[in-house]
Queue: 2 jobs
Job 1
Amino acid sequence: MAKSPAASAAYDVARVRADFPLLSRTVYGKKLIFLDSAASAQKPRAVIDAVARCYENEYANVHRGVYYLSQKATDAFEAVREKMRAFLNANETREIVFVRNGTEGMNLVAQSWGASHLKAGDEIVLSTFEHHSNIVPWQMLRDRLGVVIKVVPMDEAGNFLLGEYEKLLSPKTKLVAVTHCSNVLGTITPVREIVRLAHRAGAKVLVDGCQAAPRLAVDVRDLDCDFYVVTGHKMYGPSGTGAVYAKAEILEAMPPWQGGGGMIRRVTFEKTEYAEIPYRFEAGTPHIAGTIGLGAALDYVRGLGLEAIERHEAALLDYATRRLSEINSVRLVGTAAEKSAILSFNIGEVHPHDVGTVLDREGVAVRVGHHCAQPLMDRLGLVAAVRASFGVYNTMADVDRLHDAVLKVQRFFA
Ligand SMILES: *Cc1c(COP(=O)(O)O)cnc(C)c1O
């Protein structure tokens, strides 16, 4: 039996855990082992406090009032745009558009950029890994405009096939929309190379960074992608927040997609002049307190350091892979060479929902199902799988608890 490796000296996971109030609770009288950060991460005290402080002390609508509180709220809100710019290493704050989640980010690009730049016969390249929110908006566009969708295959282990991808590119390719990290298999895709090849073919690239942003140091200038989408709730921030990065010259050439307050310069019944970027894409009152909380989450994650997080999660993945592999009936789903700390598996012929239920009774929270990636599951010939996903607060002891609970499932059903 493998022994728990000692915690890395540089990364004090006990202290990190202590920052997350919810993790000290129990379920069914047992210690909670939270292994579902890929669905939504828990929030550190700093984020919870920032949201509460906003409502208690600084709350007013943004970009509207001339009075003191509204100015304060606007300053705090806009400061988060700068934090997000720095987090992604974008050139300018006006390249950061706030949205309400990752799904809205993809829809913004599809409906604004896609609908104004694509025509019948143009091709969009997606990958097998995509989350439904990076598939369905493009299908809606296909049904409206007659664009063609092509899909990059993967191998059995869940590796992105660069050679196959290259074969799909042609002068007809106008957009490549790929995830940076698979939410089911954990596969990290070779985004830099994907972008380089797409640009050579004259296509733009959207990267779905919903899983990657909380796990890897992201540098949009280094990747040279045209769009990068993140969602706040998976980055230890509040739900209802997120951002789209897009190169300024691309945003400048995009029409608004939702109309209303906040995105205009001047409105008459005859004609409306739109606001400059990024405000042109932010109609209506945003999630003010949530976005301020997202700023606290970015500070928190940067404080831990993305390199330290990567190392910590790589150690967890390594240990969890070894420990689950010790169990005869466990079949891992996704063993790509480049992976983040997301581990999907099945236990013999036991239905994943039964696995999830037994694990839940042991206090172990995992996700079961198709994980919003049905085409990927179809490719693997699976209806469902169990997914354990790790975050900054998970420990080697959590992995041991997962192992023991899985062993219990095997004894129970096999
Ligand atoms: C969660 C997720 C999304 C969707 O994000 P929401 O915030 O739930 O809208 C998109 N892509 C990937 C890879 C995800 O993991």
Job 2
Amino acid sequence: MAQPTTTHLDTQLQHAGTAPFDPVQGAAPVALPSMRTSTVRFQNLDALDKAQADKAKGERSVTYGRVGMDTHAALEEVFCKLEGGERAFLASSGLGAITLALFSVLNSGDHVIVADCAYGPVRYLDKTVLGRMNIQVSYSRAAVADLADQLRPNTRVLYVESPGSLLFEMLDMPALAKFAREHNLILVTDNTWGSGYVYRPLDLGADISVVAGTKYVGGHSDLMLGAVVAKDPGLIRQLNDTHYAMGYSISADDAWLAIRGVRTLPLRMRQTAEHAMEICRFLASRAEVARIYHPAWPDDPGHAIWQRDCTGSNGMLSVELKLDNAAARRFVDSLTLFGIGFSWGGFESLVQLVDHASLRSHGYWPANDHAIVRLHIGLESPQDLIADMTQALEQAAGA
Ligand SMILES: *Cc1c(COP(=O)(O)O)cnc(C)c1O
């Protein structure tokens, strides 16, 4: 049986990372098992020498368990297919993938510009670790007009996220890539939102894409995972060296779960995106709603860029409610089908009341006193979710 040749991602995701046939029996399991191992044994010293020589060339070659064997390699292949990359490196969380990307390309004395809409814990990394390593960070709206003012002679990296955290601000990735090229910066982007399935920043000129596989790739709220994907051989070399030197490692069972999850990524993302649009239509009909933040929604200011650069959407949205803090708290507490919690990309609906302190640094936020509620719309019936939100809005109003 020859390998299938197709450029359609839905097909690739069903065939990437399957087990090879046993050469004697000519048979293979359909699903690749979890290959747990802490170390590797070799048939003879020549085989070990070859593995070490391949590793020295920067190729994926296993001499020890830390980087993982077949299950890990299969998941790396899946991330390469998703992101359109040449190599993928796994980390034990999305935040771990962010640190891998940054530590691979930053040196002491460098300056990095971070998009003000990036995932909040990046600021904590800056405050606790990057500063101590003499890496300077400045935060900026991630639009070319704003970025030019931030450049310093030692600026080396532009770190962005599109759409941004909390308010899903769509960035103009091709324009950012052009700016990065002109100023010799490495463009690193967090692509957790798109997860490679509905948005491919490497195709739009980004150099490194970081994905929290914890969210849509895993998809079942039961594992932590990160991946860093790149195309450029020089960057791949730096990532490979840093990944190895820093001891980034994930369990084979988590890799196996992620592969299991990714088979249904197309279905889950399409379905949650459809549900999110139904929720948007409901929200747009409500007097309490001042604004919807969801790039697939036609009134979103990022809609044109989303139409140009994305092939789909997902279940994430934020809503600005004309409610004071106490009423917004009643709304959230009255929801019965939405779990109050961080994270997203699983099967279930989640809600988070976004505090204004964490929005203050986002230039995209209109900085009014309306409540911002972030929702992950899951796979429940949208009619049930709408009924739940309707009763919660009534509770919020009538105290
Ligand atoms: C959740 C998230 C991360 C971090 O992923 P973890 O696996 O929770 O560490 C990074 N970026 C974005 C945009 C996220 O939503």
